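assembly run, all chains below
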Amino acid sequence: MTVDEVNAFLARDFPGTSNNCAEVGPGWAVARIDTSEIGLRPGGIISGPTVFGVCDGALYYACFTVLGIEPMALTSELSIRFLRPARGTELRARADLQSVGRRSLVGNVVSWTDDIERPVAVAQGTYVRPPTPG
Amino acid sequence: MTVDEVNAFLARDFPGTSNNCAEVGPGWAVARIDTSEIGLRPGGIISGPTVFGVCDGALYYACFTVLGIEPMALTSELSIRFLRPARGTELRARADLQSVGRRSLVGNVVSWTDDIERPVAVAQGTYVRPPTPG
Amino acid sequence: MTVDEVNAFLARDFPGTSNNCAEVGPGWAVARIDTSEIGLRPGGIISGPTVFGVCDGALYYACFTVLGIEPMALTSELSIRFLRPARGTELRARADLQSVGRRSLVGNVVSWTDDIERPVAVAQGTYVRPPTPG
Amino acid sequence: MTVDEVNAFLARDFPGTSNNCAEVGPGWAVARIDTSEIGLRPGGIISGPTVFGVCDGALYYACFTVLGIEPMALTSELSIRFLRPARGTELRARADLQSVGRRSLVGNVVSWTDDIERPVAVAQGTYVRPPTPG
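ok done. output:
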């Protein structure tokens, strides 16, 4: 699966989203949001839900590397820790799968803006596979 | 503190947000998003980050009932469970504070669309008070 | 279902546990640990895993009020916030179910020692029902 | 800091604990519980609070690699996902710090029994540094 394939899917299923895929590899992915495309809070702070969204997106794309592009993979639960106010020209998150089970996939996520050494958030969450017909 | 005061603050500090305050009381608040104002996924599904946003907003407004309107109250961490796909004409979340400490406030949140008996997500999270100057 | 029924089950399936059921009602339960039966840290502090255990137990017993006594109900995930050091002669937790779905049950938990007004931890978690044979 | 130093501290501050340190390195640690020393459920299943305890211990020891042996480092919050029933002769968890801030440290944890390829739980959590006197 390639970055272009993920982004073609996003353009079709999530029209108008500013969240796209920047990198993928086996069991991991990087999501990216261009902060010029989204509303910022006074002081140029990127909102918490936007940071949640880039983390959730990265985990979704990481699941694709195992499941194929699977629109019906759904977030079951996610816990997120905000480490510092997020400011910068772009927002990224990298997700790494930690467990791939029959029913669910669990991954770790880290998000940063311009300095990867200073993450803005860390998350862990679960995606469930769609039920198999039968 | 009134609903109108919260919404006047949001209009000033979060221009263009579709997330507003619908109800407040001592230690609790209801946030609301009009889903006609946001992008939906195919099938009319409200995205996970949008559901996160309404939960986070409700907890923010609930903190205001203790702290006053405090822009610098920040989400420290939040864990969210998605219970079913979110479809409907509006999205709401109610937050109830469970603990008010010197440094942080913890609350429970439940989110629903048209049927309050069928919640779309449940969350729990922590807001930190801004540091007091000294 | 009565408190005595839950405790008879615990004596059989969890021999030697110091975690028992103190109260139950529809959709909720209170778990209790006698701190004289467990090891404490210097300063008389109850350990984090013990506090986790009383919260997890309360949620288990709350699920029993819906499922019946179901040994194979399993914790799927739980997030816990520790609010202050836990000291006292007994440790309690109350769980309230927030959502009862076909596959899983989600509940809120609060834990305290001698002063219910000063909780030592707050949690939220998910139990999964056992798969139905068929 | 060495494994022996951590275990000498545990013997002193947590007398009787079955949770000890098996490995440490910069920003990471492995905790270990000998399951012959703890009560098991029917079927030989290790309880959820025990799995929580080994994860929490691993994160505590990982913090020591940054803070030194600091008894007053406290778990602020932890979210844990249980992936499969835990059975085996020993239980281990490895924690890796993801973020080291002025006030708190965040890390990822994975726990397994006899087969490291089949983790029994994955967690993420926050420890807070003790306040500095001043």
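The longest strand of chain B covers residues 90-100.

The CA atoms of residues 8 and 106 of chain B lie 25 Å apart.

not gonna interpret more than that til we talk
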